Here is the input.
Amino acid sequence: MGRGKIAIKRIDNTMNRQVTFSKRRGGLMKKARELAILCDADVGLIVFSCTGRLYDFSSSSMKSIIERYQEAGEEHCRLLNPMSEAKFWQREVTTLRQQVQNLHHNNRQLLGEEISNFTVRDLQLLQNQVEMSLHSIRNKKGSLVQKENSELRKKFNIAHQRNIELHKKLNSGESTSSEQVTRSSKDPGESSTPRDSRVCIDLELSQKEVEDE
Here is the structure.
């Protein structure tokens, strides 16, 4: 015979109730884990036992799941009640306006304004805040200057290397042209010597012929 259907009601026996809770809690956690893995769902499960002990499971961060749940609940309420949505945006506007006023007030205090009612401790805290801001600004400025100097050094090295290469090309061109000029100046002298000797020989021969006649 098959198992009989269990009546869904509170179990009076404490021991049986605890055993059933432990078994069903394990099955519930297993199903939640399988649902998150198989369906790529964001699952959050919170269980309190009758003794107040907490058991939970979350596929990601429980805090983020609760925040999403609260936001979804507020969104659902706004959709159901347009008046509540208007009140929500009014609260948002009021909050943002207050934040802007606080920022303006803090900015004026950093500039040394509206500090007439400050105590020595308040002024010391403000001074520490300003010094920390200046320290951060100086560090940022120093890193930017160092980066710019590094880039300038790289550009200078590239320009210097190009300048050296141009000088080498110019020097090689000048040496080549000077060699060509030297060769051209030597060639006429070398070719004139044999020609002059032939002229002298011809003159001597002609003089002998005249004498013989």
About this structure: The CA atoms of residues 70 and 76 lie 10 Å apart. The longest helix spans residues 120-212. The mean pLDDT is 81. The chain is about 80% helix and 5% strand.
